């Protein structure tokens, strides 16, 4: 039997954190402006935090694209960024961000359909982000890299811990956005 690799460990170890975040994000009503606003604010704040960390080059490129789209959508409606104290350890492994963000782009198609089914999409609100490319090549690269990495090493531990922290970051940002957190002026 082949030795388990990092991708398998991430699936098992992070199933609860991943599901918890998915459940929270499912509470955003993407058919209404308030739900799309909270969704965009959560992502914009999360990418702001992640962009301050060391990233894989392809993840950095993806974040730059997505962050610009989010800022454009929010600015078009004079919506200020989420004011948050959330942070992430600066030594978070770059592969942790790659796993969470590239993986999230897979689920973005489902969220896009929910958005398209709602009246708010007809106004164009959220369009830049919701129509962003899926960046599937980043996910494929992650899979290739993670399938070659053993599951039980100090590096693997650091990647799993970092991904868990990123899931927690986004969960907390979702909570803030859903609970009507204070926005910057």
Question: What is this structure's SSE topology?
Answer:
Layout: H1 6-13, H2 15-25, H3 33-50, H4 57-76, H5 94-117, H6 127-130, H7 136-146, H8 154-178
Helix pairs in contact: 2-8, 3-4, 3-8, 4-5, 5-7, 5-8
Q: Would you write up a description of this structure?
A:
It comes from Thalassococcus halodurans. This is Heme oxygenase. The termini are far apart. The model is unreliable at 181-185 (pLDDT under 50). This protein has helices spanning 6-13, 15-25, 33-50, 57-76, 94-117, 127-130, 136-146, 154-178. Helix 3 packs antiparallel against helix 4. The chain has 185 residues and is mostly helical. The chain contains eight helices and no strands.
Keywords:
185 residues, mainly alpha, Heme Oxygenase, Chain A, 0% strand, globular, disordered C terminus, Heme oxygenase, Haem_Oase-like_multi-hlx
Class from helix and strand fractions? mainly alpha
Number of helices: 8
Biggest sheet features: none
Low-confidence stretches: 181-185
Mean pLDDT: 94
CATH topology: Heme Oxygenase, Chain A
Protein name: Heme oxygenase
Organism: Thalassococcus halodurans
